[in-house]
Amino acid sequence: YPYEEARPERQFAAVFNLNRCIGCQTCTMACKSTWTWGPGQEYMWWNNVETKPYGGYPQNWDVKLLSMLGPQEWQGGVYAGKTIFEAADPAKQTTSGFLALGYLPADEEWRYPNIHEDTAQGHSPHGARLPEHESWFFYLPRICNHCTYPACLAACPRKAIYKRQEDGIVLIDQSRCRGYRKCMEACPYKKPMYRGTTATTEKCVGCYPRIEQGQVTRCIATCIGKIRLFGWVNEESSPVHYLVHKAKVALPLYPQFGTEPNVYYIPPRWVPRDYLRQMFGPGVDAAIEAYAKPSPELLAVLQLFGATDRIIARYRLEGEAIVGFDDRGAEVVRV
Ligand code: SF4
Ligand code: SF4
């Protein structure tokens, strides 16, 4: 990967607990009413919640890319197959000199953001017939993953996309973008979207003005199911770091793509494991086991979902004691 900014000082990250999402789309509307209510943005849903296994925005985005990628090979816990960077066709090199396997979704594929909502049929997504009682579905909320190795950034021939060192948020400089849509083609999660009225591409901005003020994103703050937790994945004191790196209950979406996404998911317990493994990797079994029988420590961290980072930042572990501070940094409670 050719860019140095991959590992910023602090990395914006979130954990979404799929066991608790009720598909209410409050997050979707909170994002829409904040960022994409203008002309030319009508079809844009920077935050979307799709019903798996059949739903997708754009339609079949993941099935399409997985089939382009070929066999998904895992050796133990490590992906041994080709990432989107390795599987690219050298003949399709962009003018940025960068390669990633991808495709540009057609207009009609963006048309129904909530297609197949609540669809649970008695057969697996691979076509095999299952007994009726094995019907299942789950909601998959998605935003831009503010990837460690953003394919969008590397593919842009205008160098309009950058990753901020202070928080790892990936942004598109609207004054540089000329709407070539190379980012849309390269992003495996299909999160950059084209705006016809400005002839530029836009995407989730991680609510950076709120993050700068110590607040969490709109989609996280408004989540009805309290399924979302904001944090810094590369800071040991962050609960997100704990869930991802210590408890290992939260996993990246399609890690085989190779961009190292920074939104992590606690997989849903009722979904067939083979489906979950192709989506979150082989860590699924251990993650569900840990979530189903949580340690007291994990249970405590799971209580933080729905709390703001500002509240979490007021508490620190000092030896055996949990110490709480007020706005000015004065100690107010010790337990
Ligand atoms: Fe770029 Fe897509 Fe990753 Fe977002 S999810 S940083 S748009 S590659
Ligand atoms: Fe799921 Fe929360 Fe969004 Fe509702 S607001 S759809 S519970 S992520």
UniProtKB/TrEMBL annotation:
<feature type="domain" description="4Fe-4S ferredoxin-type">
    <location>
        <begin position="12"/>
        <end position="40"/>
    </location>
</feature>
<dbReference type="GO" id="GO:0009061">
    <property type="term" value="P:anaerobic respiration"/>
</dbReference>
<keyword id="KW-0479">Metal-binding</keyword>
<keyword id="KW-0004">4Fe-4S</keyword>
<dbReference type="InterPro" id="IPR017896">
    <property type="entry name" value="4Fe4S_Fe-S-bd"/>
</dbReference>
<keyword id="KW-0411">Iron-sulfur</keyword>
<dbReference type="Pfam" id="PF13247">
    <property type="entry name" value="Fer4_11"/>
</dbReference>
<keyword id="KW-0813">Transport</keyword>
<dbReference type="GO" id="GO:0046872">
    <property type="term" value="F:metal ion binding"/>
</dbReference>
<dbReference type="GO" id="GO:0016020">
    <property type="term" value="C:membrane"/>
</dbReference>
<keyword id="KW-0249">Electron transport</keyword>
<dbReference type="GO" id="GO:0051539">
    <property type="term" value="F:4 iron, 4 sulfur cluster binding"/>
</dbReference>
<feature type="domain" description="4Fe-4S ferredoxin-type">
    <location>
        <begin position="168"/>
        <end position="197"/>
    </location>
</feature>
<protein>
    <submittedName>
        <fullName>Nitrate reductase subunit beta</fullName>
    </submittedName>
</protein>
<keyword id="KW-0408">Iron</keyword>
<dbReference type="GO" id="GO:0030313">
    <property type="term" value="C:cell envelope"/>
</dbReference>
<dbReference type="GO" id="GO:0009055">
    <property type="term" value="F:electron transfer activity"/>
</dbReference>
<keyword id="KW-0677">Repeat</keyword>
